[in-house]
Amino acid sequence: MASNFIKVKCKKCGNVQTVFSHATREVVCLGCGAVLLEPTGGKAHLVYGEIVEVVDEPKEKGAGAKERNEEASEENGTRGASSE
Ligand SMILES: [Zn+2]
What we know:
By secondary structure, the chain is mainly β. It is built from no helices and six strands.
């Protein structure tokens, strides 16, 4: 599963900032300096932070050009090949 960004709201002052969900360092509130997240080696542990929104990786380019390559199930496979 890809790591992503989360919008975290400070429980102390209400400031909202976007942080990396797998932060490897303490993330402090830009408003009051409270520790929002602390690293755990995996997904960061929330201290004074509260997740308000999960943000996908901000590397989308050219919105609207999304095409899904659906692989149609092929029917010319080996059907009824049960050897009995
Ligand atoms: Zn704060």
